[in-house]
Amino acid sequence: MGEPTTIELVMPWPPSVNGYWRSIVQGKTRNGKPLVRQIISAKGRAYRSSALAAIDRAGSPYIAGEVTIEELFYPPCRRRRDLDNYRKALRDALTTGGVIDDDSMIRVDHGEWREVDTKNPRVEVRITRKESA
Fold first, then answer.
1. Exposed, middle or buried by CB within 10 Å (0-12, 13-18, 19+), for 119?
2. Among 14, 39, 106, 130, which is disulfide-ready with 89 (CB 3.0 to 4.6 Å)?
3. Does domain 6-129 have CATH number 3.30.1330.70?
4. Distance CA 113, CA 102 (A)
5. What is the DSSP string of 67-114?
6. Cα angle, residue 101 at apex, residues 95 and 107 outer, rounded to 5°
């Protein structure tokens, strides 16, 4: 049996990119400006842990090469959101979890909002190997 051409996963609701990163000051540069580093926040690390568990429960699927990704976002409430702000944590988890080689391999993407699901906010993901032309 060969490598799959399509993978479907149900991933936990990701944090916004605004809550995924945290800035810390680590001293000063030579010219006296603050040296600021970006790290993954506690909320981001907690998400990564739950996302990796979801990947593990799905059997740790892997798909190589260039891919197309479809994401259906089922938010926890009706608050206005920017779709792109929720993709970073999700795609980093797919890479860290070994589902895809790197999010730079995503050649086509499609994301859409679905109805609110207060009891089970999630992202349903479908990843398909992009066929060579």
1. exposed
2. 14
3. yes
4. 24
5. EEEEEEEE-SS-----GGGGHHHHHHHHHHTTSSS-GGGEEEEEEEE-
6. 100
SS3 state of residue 63 = coil
- Distant-in-sequence, close-in-space partners of 106: CB < 8 Å, separation ≥ 6: 66, 67, 68, 69, 91, 100
Residue spans of the domains in the chain: they are 6-129
* pTM for the model: 0.86
- Which residue in 101, 100, 99, 70 sits closest to 87, CA to CA? 70
Tokens (6 digits) for 40: 């993954």
